[in-house]
Design a protein that fits this description.
Oligomer: single chain
Number of helices: 2
Strand content: 25-35%
Number of domains: 1
Order of helices and strands: HEEEEEEH
Strand order of the largest sheet: 1-2-3-4-5-6
Helix content: 25-40%
Radius of gyration: 16 Å
Largest sheet: 6 strands, antiparallel
Amino acid sequence: MKYSMVMQMSCYEANFERLMWLIPGIQNMEGLALSEGRDLMDLQLEVVERCRYTLTIALTHYFRSDGVLVSDPYMKIRIYLDARVAEVLSYQNHRFQFLHPSPILNELNLCEKRQINKFLGEWLDYCISQGHGFLSEVRCTKA
């Protein structure tokens, strides 16, 4: 089944709504913020870039594995405040190319983008279900 642009935009809109639920005061946030949920893993939010109509954030879960702090997943997400949509820009530092000159590679790229944006929605649902959330008053700076 071909994935339509309408379905893609619906995913972006749903992710925007999830982010607004998780981070209701995002328009006022700066720097880093941490959330502790029932899953005992810190969820870290960083406002990476702020423009007139967009925000770019980095979102990651931190957990301990053999005494080492691991960030997984790690995503950079662009939030389009005026259009009320959000999309993944990179996952685990792998940046997605919007369009590729080769039709075959372009289709693979779009398929990968669809999958990772769907995963973002599932991850945000998990974070919300675990009681994660950020208040606009919570601000910290990088250490």
